[in-house]
Specification:
Blueprint: H1 4-13, H2 19-42, H3 45-62
Helix pairs in contact: 1-2, 2-3
Amino acid sequence: MQSSCDLVRAASDGDPTKRPAAFECLVRRFQDLAYGCAYGILGNFHLAQDVSQDAFLTAYTDLGKSEAPDAFPA
């Protein structure tokens, strides 16, 4: 299993044909954590889904700006 740091690097500046697959691995690895945090704060199933989805979209567009790829879950 690849480390999160390796997946972030692959999803941000790796082979363009492999970027989506690397980011998909990150989403699968952290989707429950993101949803759980959002639900804990919002207390609403649907809003938590929306917020976690928005967070992943933002992460995808801003991955190249990351100075610390090992801090992805944060």
